[in-house]
Amino acid sequence: LFFFLSLVFINLAHAEDGFFFEGKIIEYKEDNNLIYAKDNVRVTSMEGFEAFANESRYYRSLNKLILVGDVKIIDNNKNIILQSDEVEYQKNLELITSKNKTSINVNKNFFIITKNINYFRNKETISSSHETRVTDNFGNQVKSSDFILSIGKKEFKTKKINLLDKDSNEYIADNVMIDLSKNQLAGKDIEMYFKKTDDLNNHARLKGNSITSNDRFTTIKKGIFTNCKPNDNCPTWSLESEEIVHDKLKKT
Prior knowledge:
By secondary structure, the protein is mainly beta. It contains one helix and 19 strands. About 2% of the residues have low confidence.
């Protein structure tokens, strides 16, 4: 009888508050304001939200859901999968926040490792003010100081970035925007270090005021190129130009 009544109450919570709870243990506490679930917890909503955790606490008066332990969030409408140790979902604000290390899978194409994220579902933005690492299916590896991701526009923005591309060229730049749909990058105050090869004396590098880059070309404005060994003095020789273009395919 208790089990049957529990199932009835679960369905009532779903109908009233927009969530459906499943778990081995489900309890009502604090005058039914708190719904507590534990062991193999699954929480779903009509808006494409799906969550798994070791335990959950839902405060009905605040419309706030807290998930703890091996948390996995699936946003089916946005093709986002988020994993962390603890996640809070403020339903009134449509805000999902995480604590400590967090991984984000975007469209199964881009993989983000960071911590303490803010995910506004309605605004379609995910952000963190902490160090972040990003990899993609093209083989690019990104380390950034922070980030804000626009899911709809597929734009990744950061104040400072260190990027190692699929050809092992390294980019260091400020105020960077990456178009994830086109695999294009734009930024300021760029330093680019070419893949080390004997032909370039292992020291070939470009510096400039700004950069735009895609799969084929990298363009640097007000740039300077040299392959001299770095030292305290000026390089033995350098090439300067209002615009320098690197053809990645032709390697020229």
